[in-house]
């Protein structure tokens, strides 16, 4: 165990048992007052704190045993049986230790009578306390493993999503590049200078797509600028008429999103628009609870076919 975690576990162990000691002191003292006794607060506190610290001393032993007897298949039943069998010996050891410490604290010699009395009075209670410590440890461990499993599932889903995005990008990019080259070829005859500009723009877009990984974080404004550069490829030429509208607040534009997160929809929009005679595109960006939501709608001319794409990605503030 790391030193930091060991220190935290020790502090939690002591803190819990010290609080238990204060509670037991207040309960015993209040009960003695109601019953007409005259218990001295300091004496009650000293006794209960000694008992609590003894339990704090035994708790790491219980945790160590529980760590070596995990309640996991295929040995769950065997380990539960061992733990049940250990409850009585542990309780006997705890009773003996408590009796010895009590004699030592009071400056009296060891008393066999006190030991026997302690066995008769406390063994049953100590069995329950040991069982409760085991139960709490296994409950905390089960929650920790569940949280770890959930983190692993989220990580696996994230990796799968990134793989799917990369695969989709690799599958769409050749088609995107070929469609753009055909479009540039159609523009080349009428507007050679515009075609040169389109070739430079296309090469920059393709370099960006290949250079950036899906795990890189950029601003949404940068991703939308890339979107607009791709639409520039559709605006050239007399037979293409394209209008684009972007709706987003300053805070949304500054938020962080994965690079190329819009690449699949960008390529779909460009391919659809260049298959006809242009159209219109509207991109609406907003914060939705803890997500960044991007709605992309486009209409292809001349048939007026409308498509919509919605993207959600966890909201990430821009670095200060």
Task: Explain briefly what this protein structure is.
This protein has 320 residues and is an alpha+beta fold. The chain contains 8 helices and 6 strands.
Can you walk me through this structure?
The protein is of the alpha+beta class and 320 residues long. It folds into two domains: 3-151, no CATH class; 165-314, Heat Shock Protein 90. It has eight helices and six strands, in the order αααααβαβαβαβββ. The protein has helices at 3-34, 41-68, 76-105, 112-188, 192-211, 220-235, 250-254, 263-275; strands at residues 217-219, 241-247, 256-258, 278-288, 291-300, 305-314. The chain has a four-stranded mixed sheet with strand order 2-4-5-6, with helices on one face. The radius of gyration is 36 Å and the shape is rod-shaped. The chain starts with a helix and ends in a 6-residue tail after the last strand.
Topology of helices and strands:
Blueprint: H1 3-34, H2 41-68, H3 76-105, H4 112-188, H5 192-211, E1 217-219, H6 220-235, E2 241-247, H7 250-254, E3 256-258, H8 263-275, E4 278-288, E5 291-300, E6 305-314
Helix pairs in contact: 1-2, 2-3, 2-4, 3-4, 4-5, 4-8, 5-6, 6-8
Supply the number of structural domains. 2
The DSSP helix count reads: 8
Integer-rounded radius of gyration: 36 Å
Shape: rod-shaped
Distance between the termini: 35 Å
CATH topology of the largest domain: Heat Shock Protein 90
Proportion in β-strands: 5-15%
For the secondary structure, the number of strands is 6
The overall pLDDT, averaged over residues, is 80
Name the CATH class of the largest domain: Alpha Beta
**How much helix is in the residues?**
55-70%
Following the backbone from N to C, one meets helices and strands in this order, namely HHHHHEHEHEHEEE
Strand order of the largest sheet: 2-4-5-6
Low-confidence stretches: none
User: Can you name the CATH architecture of the largest domain?
Assistant: 2-Layer Sandwich
Largest β-sheet summary: 4 strands, mixed
Class inferred from helices and paired strands: alpha+beta
